[in-house]
Amino acid sequence: MEVKEFYQEFHHWLITRGPSYIFGIVAFVFGLWLIRFIRSRMRDRMSRNKVHSSLQPFFLSLSITSLYVLLIISVMNILGFELTIFTTIIGAFSVAAGLALSGTFQNFAGGVLILLLKPFELDDSIVAQGQDGRVISIQIFYTVLLTADNKTVIIPNGKLFNEVIVNVTREGKRRLDFDVRLSYTADIDKARKIMLDAIKATKNILTDPASRVGLIGLDNDSIRITVNVWVEPVNFLDVKIALMEKIIKDLAVAGITFPKPGA
Asked: Using CA atoms, how far apart are residues 181 and 225, in angstroms rounded to an integer?
């Protein structure tokens, strides 16, 4: 009797539940094949579209993992499993993880936007978060700058993308500005000529756009002459040091007077 009852129960289960299990197995196998096909197509598509190498593994992993989770849930639903408790656990875990990793998610989102929108690229010189340096690495969670005095600065991407970013490299040239203070007795025309000659004699100053020297302000004890020259960003600091030094020396040799300190 026990064997007969077992057979009847098994036959009943096979008739009522068997098709669902067979369909679930078929759906699972087909889903695995489809996910492998999608992975291959995504990898090829991202390579053709030149998606940043730092983003490709993430997008691929996120998409494939999501598809696997969706496949498992779908198969469990086909097999008739109750998913209410499973869904509740996943939801609670997601909320807890979101609260714990909110700062990390912000950095991650900032990194993705930086890599997609490209406000700067590797080797660009930028000014951001009070730092001025050359970009030597762009990661998902942070960006690394190398300053002119050889300091490595690591900036979280969440803060970086949500603040003002000054890219001093993108346009290919940068204007160098500084003022020279002279006494009211100084010959302005002579001083201007000396400054223009110093500009011509200084290396790495671009001729287009043209340099400019002119009176910019009148103070109580002095006049201010502004100097505007254009340089390539990589030569900015070297040109500034060389040009300022030459102008001051040439003005002094020519007898151009400077305001006395404290006057």
From this structure: 6
CA 69 to each of CA 83, 90, 102, 181, 233: distance values in angstroms, whole numbers, following the listed order: 13, 11, 23, 70, 49
0.85 exceeded by pTM: no
**Phi, psi at residue 146, to the nearest 5°?**
-115, 115
Residue 262 pLDDT class (50, 70, 90 cuts): low
User: What is the rounded distance in angstroms from the CA atom of residue 16 to the CA atom of residue 20?
Assistant: 8
Average pLDDT for residues 256-262, to the nearest whole number? 76
Query: Which amino acid is located at 202 in the chain?
Result: T
Query: Which of 231, 239, 169, 163 is closest to 198 using CA atoms?
Result: 239
Q: What domains does the chain contain, in order, with CATH numbers?
A: 2-100 (1.10.287), 119-167 (2.30.30.60), 174-253 (3.30.70.100)
The CA distances from residue 13 to 9, 16, 71, 125, 176, in Å, are 6, 5, 24, 70, 84
pLDDT band, very low/low/confident/very high, at 101 (cuts 50, 70, 90):
very low
